[in-house]
Amino acid sequence: MKNKLFFIIYSVLLLAIAARAENIDPDNSDRQFAYGENVGWINFEPGPEDTGAIVSREKVEGFVWAENIGWVNLSPENYGGVFNDGYGQLSGYAWGENIGWINFDPDYGGMLIDINGNFSGWAWSENVGWINFNDSQLFGKGVVVCVVNYFDLETMSQQWLSSGSGLTADLKPDSTVDFEDLAVLADYWFDYCPGDWPL
User: Fold this and answer.
1) 190: which DSSP letter?
2) Residues 132/138, Cβ–Cβ less than 8 Å
3) Contact at 8 Å (CB) between 90 and 58?
4) Residue 186: which region, alpha, beta or left (left: phi > 0; alpha: psi -120 to 50)?
5) How many of the other CB atoms lie within 10 Å of CB of 187?
6) Residue 149 Rama label (left phi>0; alpha psi -120 to 50; beta)
7) pLDDT digit string (tens) for 138-190?
8) How many CB atoms neighbour CB 30 within 10 A?
9) Is the dihedral of CA 165, 167, 171, 177 positive or negative?
10) Across 19-148, where does the E strand assignment appear?
């Protein structure tokens, strides 16, 4: 009975997360994985329903998946979750039912997100050891988050003053790319993309 209740609660939480799109691996190049010697690959964009990590200036939330340990909650209600200081310095704790707490700041400066959205550093779990986020050591499979930058501005400039449907730079949907869309781009400039970012 206890396991059934846990499964139902977990399913509801996953559906709630699925309603918000994640913002990991914007180029769909498999840049969504961390690795732990004792847990294997941890997928930050695990499903077609967008159940994955959502990065903002304040926090990293959502659920990630590892074949060997199951779901890991990046934003558990108790103990606060994983925080972002606005400059990419991560801290706080994630929770995995099968492995316990994962510390995202084990040596006071261990986890970072750079200006291009690349995760780096190491997280620590008392029960499974170190988890590596360093892209150069993970065969190009590290975790990257979408950041609004010059590529988005280039797309907007290519579609500037265009009209019609299907324009990815139509950020304030009115079928025209204009100053209203540029204002939305400016609001997110060098920030993490919202989950439904079309550029």
Assistant:
1) T
2) yes
3) no
4) alpha
5) 11
6) beta
7) 998 999 999 999 999 999 999 999 999 999 999 999 999 999 999 999 999 99
8) 13
9) negative
10) 33-36, 40-43, 53-55, 59-66, 70-73, 82-84, 90-96, 100-103, 111-113, 119-125, 129-132
Per residue in 94-115, pLDDT (tens digit) is 999 999 999 999 887 679 999 9
Neighbouring residues of 195: CB distance < 8 A, sequence distance ≥ 6: 20, 21, 22, 23, 50, 54
pLDDT at 4: 42
Strand partners, 42: 34, 66
Residue 72 and residue 34: Cα distance in Å, rounded? 13
Structure tokens, 20: 């918000």
**pLDDT top residue among 43 and 4:** 43
pLDDT bucket at 50, cuts 50 / 70 / 90: low
